[in-house]
Amino acid sequence: xxxxxxxxxxxxxxxxxxxxxxxxxxxxxxxxxxxxxxxxxxxxxxxxxxxxxxxxxxxxxxxxxxxxxxxxxxxxxxxxxxxxxxxxxxxxxxxxxxxxxxxxxxxxxxxxxxxxxxxxxxxxxxxxxxxxxxxxxxxxxxxxxxxxxxxxxxxxxxxxxxxxxxxxxxxxxxxxxxxxxxxxxxxxxxxxxxxxx
Length: 197
Prior knowledge:
The chain is an all-alpha fold. The chain has helices at 2-31, 58-88, 92-112, 117-129, 133-146, 151-164, 167-179, 184-194.
């Protein structure tokens, strides 16, 4: 019995020694720079769950921005028409406020769709009506860089030149409009004549 206990004790000590050696070699290999054996990677989730909607493409984003820009344009155009009516009625203070309100909306429309030349033209119109000729010229230039044949921008540009005192350039715009047989030519011609030129 004593012998079997002694044998059991030896076997236990041998197993402990073997376990200690295994731990020692594993620790020394990690200390030496050998990475531990990799654990299996965690299960991967799909990148996009099948129930989530697809990411919109750039054409859809552009179409949505244009639709929002057109909504702003309509509201701003209504504001500018009301401002023109106020001007005719001699309510210049009210007109200026409405032109400023319209200008903000037209400006936002150009931010949503930078190729919206009609909105650029109206930024120029409202800027001119609020006395900011520098901004008006820049906006007309932008509209005409997108659509060089946009006759309304040529007419409004002529009006801006007339306001700035550059009658020669206003007449250049009038000649362009006449060459294109544009209906806008009559309005600019009337303005030039009313200014005494």
